[in-house]
Amino acid sequence: MSEPKFVNLHTHSTYSTLDGFSTITEYIAHAKKHGQPALGITDHGNLHGVWELITQAQANGITPVPGCEFYVAPINPDGAKAQTPIYYGDGGEADVSGRGGYLHLTMWATNDTGLKNLFTLGMLATQPEHKRAGHPRIDLTMMQNHHEGIIVSTGCPSGEISTRFRLNQDDKAYEYAQTLIDIYGKENVYVEIMNHNMHTDLERNLLVKQLKLAKDLKLPLLATNDCHYAHPENAPHHEEMLAIGTGTTMTEPPRHHGGKRFCFDGDQYYLKTAQEMLQIFPEETYPNAVANTIQLANRIEKFTLFNYRPDLRPTPPIPNGHTEETYLRHLTETAAHTQYANNPQRLHQALDRINTELDVLAAADYTGYMLLVHEYVNWFRNQYSIRNTQGDIIMSAVGVARGSAGGSLTAYLLGITDIDPLEHGLYFERFISAGRVDQAKLTSGTNSITLPVSEKLTVLTPTGQKTKKYVHQIQPGDWVLADHNTHPLTNPN
Question: Options 3.60.20.10, 3.20.20.140, 3.40.50.2300, 2.60.34.10; which CATH number does 24-297 get?
Answer without folding.
Answer: 3.20.20.140
